[in-house]
Design a protein that fits this description.
The protein is of the alpha+beta class and 587 residues long. It is built from 14 helices and 22 strands. Helix content is 23%, strand content 21%. Strands 1, 7, 8, 9, 10, 11, 14, 17, 18, 19 and 20 form an eleven-stranded mixed sheet that branches. Helix 7 packs antiparallel against helix 9 and helix 13 runs antiparallel to helix 14.
């Protein structure tokens, strides 16, 4: 298999440069692509080549070892789940022959199991048949603690996965659950081939060459992989028929504005993924554009996290930001409430986001049945000052900074490098300094900030700062996994190598009880009410400060058609349907 891939790699070396392409060796996870610049003049384009631009470079094409969204996006072109959710929240079959229902016997009445019928006569790109045993293996791979899969949290409620026959798979849950559709759906549910990965189901999982030379069932297959660039060609045996493009070039490490310009101004690319560009700059790019901005509002919320632990004190074991050592002032809810009142959501949304963001105070914004309307927000610096006064934080030495017990109110506010986030930081910094706080701004390399590497101390899960801002949301219309991120058992720590998502170190037993009840409740209305209570409790505790409901904003060429974006999967989820229009569509 490797020799065949390497021979093919030679054919595309000219596209990337002889020194740039090394598709026959495992790339270094720390290797960074050179920044790509683009001129204003439109280059001649081959209409049969699809060009995709991303802010981060793909590190792996194994979705279960993903280091970030860019890995899912790149892998989704090759691998497929049993099903995924459309923008309307409706399940769409991929490797499944049909969607399970109670009527067709797929969903058990007691809520403890679901049975999927698989699409027949599907093959992997090496010609081997896809069967239920591949679904079983994918579960074994994800649940293997030696693999440490990035997607393991989405399978925590699964007790077993059984191949009933070659085209039928049964999933049994540990408890009755309404979230039966979470496992094996969307970008966290992509199926791996047993015959390729079985020997790497263990501590050597990340050493497998197939992580960058995948064997999938999707519409395209990987021709070559290099840090920063992936080249794809059509899967000639694809069950859905031949895809439209002769080649796909996916390039990462492109600054958001440069990527948007390449699509909308110069026409040198077809899609710039999830661009976070200031509203005024986007408005300028949309004038006489060769592309359009497609916005999809889902569950993504830009939020400010407050550290409930002390980021600079160490435990006896040398751990920083440990829940054993409370934060010197954020442990007081009055201080957290003051911070919340000092965030001008309306100004941030209007100035920085425009049509790609809406001011918000709730964390759970979609689907609509789970969103509460009882969480208000306001911008009130005078009330914030009164709260800090009441908490005993006053300026005793007339240096302009509040203090208490000899401790001055200083905060380190970090985020990934991004112009919009830096301006968000600056706007919040100005308000906090008006309150009498000293704010130091920290900008972290994007790949470091979102890193899952236990050694990367600048990551958002290490959270060696007082405040941080970023965006994330639920992977599925079902919020069970997403809302578990604030439970006590999900606190990121040295013991779990900072792999758990509760980076605020928030812990409230009342919240845990609500989540446990919601995870087992089968009645839709009662379940929705529990999730709303959880969101309201997070707001009351100021466990998180939601600021903007963010859209997935993709810049798309006017010549590209067939896209039906969804917030519940990668932007490439329906790439099998994308085509080149003979003429630009009317605006």
């Amino acid at each position: 298999m490797k020799s065949g891939i390497c021979a093919t790699v030679l054919l595309v070396t000219a596209l990337l440069g002889a020194g740039a392409l090394n598709g026959c060796s495992q790339p270094s996870p720390t290797a960074q692509p050179e920044p790509v610049s683009s001129g204003e003049e439109r280059a001649e384009r081959d209409p049969d080549v699809l060009k995709l631009l991303y802010g981060r470079a793909a590190v792996t094409l194994n979705p279960h070892l993903a280091t970030g969204y860019q890995d899912f996006e790149a892998a989704r072109i090759v691998y497929e789940p049993l099903a995924s959710y459309s923008a309307k929240g409706e399940l769409v079959p991929f490797l499944a022959a049909e969607i399970p229902t109670e009527e067709n016997g797929g969903i058990a009445a007691d809520g403890k199991s679901v049975t999927w019928k698989l699409r027949p006569e599907v093959t992997w790109t090496d010609g081997k048949p896809f069967t239920a045993d591949d679904v079983v293996f994918t579960f074994e791979f994800i649940r293997n603690p030696q693999v440490a899969a990035a997607t393991a949290q989405f399978y925590e409620g699964v007790e077993s996965v059984e191949a009933v026959d070659s085209n039928t798979v049964k999933i049994t849950f540990t408890e009755p659950t309404a979230a039966w559709s979470v496992p094996f759906t969307g970008q966290t549910g992509l199926i791996l081939p047993r015959h390729v990965f079985e020997e790497f189901n263990g501590p050597k999982a990340r050493e497998a060459q197939v992580n960058v030379q995948p064997i999938g069932t999707g519409p395209y297959t990987v021709l070559a992989f290099a840090p920063g660039t992936v080249i794809y060609s059509p899967n000639v045996t694809y069950w859905g028929g031949a895809p439209a493009f002769r080649s796909i070039e996916l390039t990462g490490g492109i600054a958001p504005y440069a990527a948007a310009r390449d699509v909308m101004r110069t026409g040198n690319a077809d899609l710039a993924n999830n661009i976070q560009v200031e509203a005024s700059a986007l408005k300028d790019l949309e004038k006489d554009a060769q592309g359009r901005l497609i916005t999809t509002f889902g569950s993504s919320v830009e939020r400010i996290m407050l550290n409930f632990s002390h980021p600079f004190a160490k435990t006896e074991k040398g751990e920083r930001s440990s829940s054993e050592v409370p934060h010197p002032y954020f442990s007081d809810i009055r201080v957290r409430e003051a911070i919340n009142l000092a965030v001008d959501r309306d100004a941030i949304a209007q100035t920085l986001y425009g049509g790609t963001g809406r001011p918000v105070a709730q964390l759970l914004v979609e689907p609509a049945q789970y969103a509460t309307s009882t969480i208000p927000y306001e911008y009130d610096l005078e009330r914030a000052k009164s709260l800090l006064d009441a908490a005993g934080w006053v300026d005793t030495n007339d240096n302009g900074i509040r203090d208490k017990g000899g401790v001055e109110m200083e905060v380190l506010f970090q985020s990934a490098v991004n112009p919009v986030r830096q301006q968000t930081q600056a706007m919040v910094q100005k308000s906090l300094e008006e309150l009498g706080m000293k704010v130091q701004i920290e900008r972290v390399r994007v790949d470091d900030f979102f890193s899952a590497n236990p050694q990367q101390t600048n990551s958002l899960n290490h959270f060696f700062a007082d405040m941080q801002v970023y965006s994330t949301g639920s992977e599925s219309p079902d919020p069970t996994t997403y809302m578990s991120w604030w439970t006590c058992g999900k606190i990121a720590s040295q013991a779990n190598k900072w792999q758990e998502p509760n980076n605020a170190r928030y812990c409230n037993p009342e919240y845990d009880q609500l989540w446990e009840a919601a995870s087992k409740e089968l009645d839709p209305e009662k379940r929705a009410a529990l999730f709303k209570q959880m969101d309201e409790l997070l707001a009351m505790d100021v466990a998180v400060i939601p600021i903007v409901h963010r859209a997935i904003a993709n810049a798309v060429s006017n010549t590209l058609t067939g896209l039906e974006p969804t917030p519940w999967d990668a932007s490439t989820w329906d790439i099998k349907n994308w085509q080149r229009a003979s003429e630009a569509p009317e605006s």
